[in-house]
Amino acid sequence: MLVDFLRSALIEVDVQNDFCPSYQTARGESLPPGALAVNRGDEVVPPLNALAVQFARRGGKVIATADWHPAGHVSFAASHPGKRPGDTICLPNGAEQALWPEHCVQGTVGAAFHETLDLRPVHLIIRKGYRTQLDSYSAFFENDRTTTTGLDAYLKGLGIGTLLFGGLATDYCILYSALDALRLGFRTLVLTDAIRAVGYPEGSEEQSLQRLRETGAILIDSEAIVAG
Ligand code: VGL
Ligand code: ZN
């Protein structure tokens, strides 16, 4: 068996409206594209839903993460006079911070999970990036590399050794979450049909997949898990 469900968790990363393109809700309303819409971002939902049901049924854990920023967050270009999305700034601690459009502001429609994401099988929701001066791409550590979300301890406490990642976006939150997972000693699978990339800067999707492969992640189609 590819995955021992009892010792595995599915991590559904940031499947939120602001990362999704325009779509029709179940009530027939049209939602505009999210503030940081990822091309075909909503396509991650069907494979994630299918796998989440399998996980819940077979005793695995399902965790959803959410980017959850306060208004005026350090990662918003609008918080820095004269800066635009795509620019970078140097933080007081010397680290580089990429600047984005305002996105996933706490409590807004943009920060809500995409309405087609099935939350019934989800055991735990991890919110990240909710400190004004600190961004977080990884589900494990905020970008200062020391502030923990508690996810590592949760998983280790349950004896979970294998993680499967899907969601948004390949070149940011998936990349940094999966790299941290590898560093923390988890067997790390990235679901190639259940991720989509921002694609900025150019080539970032291919570079991210390459880096994940080189670091030891297993890139695999989610159907192989369901079938296996
Ligand atoms: C993300 C950019 C900014 C992500 C979050 O979820 O990949 N990307 N904030
Ligand atoms: Zn963000």
Q: Give the name of the CATH architecture.
A: 3-Layer(aba) Sandwich
Mind telling me the C-alpha Rg?
17 Å
Nearest-integer average pLDDT: 96
CATH class: Alpha Beta
Give the percentage of residues in beta strands. 15-25%
**Number of structural units classed as domains:** 1
Q: Structural class given helices, strands, pairing?
A: alpha/beta
**String of helices and strands:** EEEHEEEEHEHEHEH
* Major beta-sheet overview: 6 strands, parallel
| Percent helix | 10-25%
What is the helix tally?
Answer: 5
Shape: globular
Give the total of beta strands. Answer: 10
Bound small molecules, deduplicated: pyrazine-2-carboxylic acid, zinc ion
Reading side by side through the largest sheet, how are the strands ordered? Answer: 7-4-1-8-9-10
Distance between the termini: 6 Å
Q: Any idea of the CATH topology?
A: Rossmann fold
CATH superfamily: Isochorismatase-like
Low-confidence stretches: none
